[in-house]
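Hey forum,

I'm writing up a methods section and want to include a predicted complex as supplementary material. The small molecule is ketopantoate. I've pasted the protein sequence and the SMILES. Can someone with a working setup run it? I'll credit the forum in the acknowledgements.
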Amino acid sequence: MRIAVVGAGGVGGYFGARLAAAGHEVTFVARGRHLEAVRRSGLLVRSPLGDVRTSPDSAVDSIARLGPADLVVVAVKLWDTEDVAAQLASAKTGGAPVLSLQNGVHKDAILRRSLPEESVLGGTCFISAFIEEPGVVRHNGALQRMVFGARHPSQKDVVERFLTACQEAGTDAAISTDIDRVIWEKFVFLVGLSATTATVRRPIGVVRSHERSRVLLREIMEETVALARASGVALDDTFAERQLAFCDTLPADMTSSMHNDLEHGNRLELPWLSGGVADLADRLGVPAPRNRTVADILAPYALGAPAGG
Ligand SMILES: NC(=O)C1=CN([C@@H]2O[C@H](COP(=O)(O)OP(=O)(O)OC[C@H]3O[C@@H](n4cnc5c(N)ncnc54)[C@H](OP(=O)(O)O)[C@@H]3O)[C@@H](O)[C@H]2O)C=CC1
Ligand SMILES: CC(C)(CO)C(=O)C(=O)O
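Reply by user p_vandermeer:
Happy to help. Structure tokens for the complex are below, copy them as they are.
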């Protein structure tokens, strides 16, 4: 397949490099020092599942330089989505379908503001990976799962072809016939994990083993389940409790990408995680005081480490 990957970071770099190693024609859109390093030596993925390196000519510096593609994968941080969507609207990708592997429940609506509704597939991913240095993506652990699905009958063919490509690449991939439910299910877990690990400033092992932070984790997920329901995705009454049980099975040192970004003084995806829950809850008249408090506590860090002390 001809696959354009917009954003060659933890997610796009990892999955794109695996697809390229399996013989697919992958073009990355990258920028800055990362792009320069990829152009010098290719994109290196260091992974416990085996390292891979792409060819140095696999990257371009803008969406405008992409040629015809069978699929465009979007893997930029959420604050860049609107800009990417606007550029994709005038790209020469031949109207290729677009699959966002970004976190959260807002991304596809943002893409649909600039792109035709039927071109936006649904998807999500489960992985821990980040840019370790320019040109290098580090994959932690063995988890590297993608779930995606069609929202429109015309998308079924590309979804099937992409599943085959992912299987050839050795990634753990699956098609869902109810992809919006899967996206909300991951969102409930991620909002709970990111809110608690970032405010407690410790991985899940600490959060889940203290009585009050455990209650906080459950209640944040319960608020998000209520929001899913108000948004038309009928997660059942036991979902938050089951996610809490799932959190008990995770390695004690597992944390969220938002906690990791907080520790490194990076910008946070907070406005689309607890902040996004609180804002949407306000609009739909659903109580979400826990998420609002988390969003308020972390607000000074949302654009990166605050200056002045
Ligand atoms: N990392 C992870 O383990 C996981 C991340 N996710 C989600 O996946 C999404 C992507 O995250 P992640 O991979 O960590 O992000 P990264 O920051 O690692 O990678 C994104 C890359 O895209 C680049 N970029 C942004 N806009 C453009 C553009 N217009 N043209 C070219 N390059 C661009 C960024 O450059 P620059 O640095 O200059 O901004 C950066 O190099 C997020 O929504 C995240 O929540 C989901 C599951 C796990
Ligand atoms: C929970 C996890 C690590 C799973 O992919 C994630 O998506 C994140 O922290 O951003």
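Some notes you might quote in the supplement: The chain has two domains: 2-177, 181-301. The pocket of NDP (ligand 1) is lined by residues 7-12, 29-32, 34, 75-78, 80, 83-84, 101-103, 125, 127-131, 257, 269 (CB under 6 Å).
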